[in-house]
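Readers of this paper often ask what the protein records in our data store actually look like. Nothing more is needed to write down the fold, since each code stands for a local backbone conformation. Below, we set out a record of this kind in full and without editing:
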Amino acid sequence: MLAVLPLSLLHVVGATLGWLTFLASPTYRRRFLANARQAGYRFPQVRGAVAGAGRLIAEAPRLWFGVTPAVQWSGEQLIEEALARGRGIVFLTPHLGCFEATAQGYAARFGPITVLYRPARKPWLRPLVDQSRARPNLFTAPTTLAGVKQMLKALQAGQAVGLLPDQVPPQGLGVWAPFFGEPAYTMTLSARLARQTGAQVLLAWGERLAWGRGYRIHLRAWEGDVPVAPEAAASQVNARMEALIRECPSQYLWGYARYKTPRGTA
């Protein structure tokens, strides 16, 4: 039912939800403010992200079950050049703006893309999440060994894969690296995929446009080679994610527990 509502209305509802959550949850509010402060921002500079977090939730039904909203592109020539090389593309996208629209927009315009996702913890919810993200040319890979093999196969076929490198990976699948000056457990998978396949690494984020006008996908090139050492590669990935976030801090998910210790750590 929510999927048929106008995106503008969903964003109004989401903004309200975001502020209610911010005001009602001291834990969430403290984490939001602490993460923003760690990056050097005062609350007035990032207050738009309070409503943005709610919009992220409210727009999900439309993106999962409805028609994909309008998508604009900035820097799409980088994709065309990478596809011409035939070695595949590794997209790195932080929790900035609407990352769901980024993958859907690519699949609709350029072809197959496989995105890494963490399966829902509740067994009854998994089929719903898996089916809702199904779109032509859009495939999902779980954060398991089978999922990694699926992504490698896609890159070897010259296709694209997408990851959220500022998502805390399971224990053993990352290293500690600075993120806005604070150690954060960071995945090493993105760098390994690029080195093993020779794929082009591109940075991307989906700006949420005002008044429900859709999204604008911004693309940036990865300058230089990906380091071999896991710690150095993770540090460079985090530095590039920081640069993207600073382009639009009011749309970053500051309430995400980026500095938490992964499960399984003693």
Remarks:
- The chain has a mean pLDDT of 93.
- Residues 70-251 form one domain.
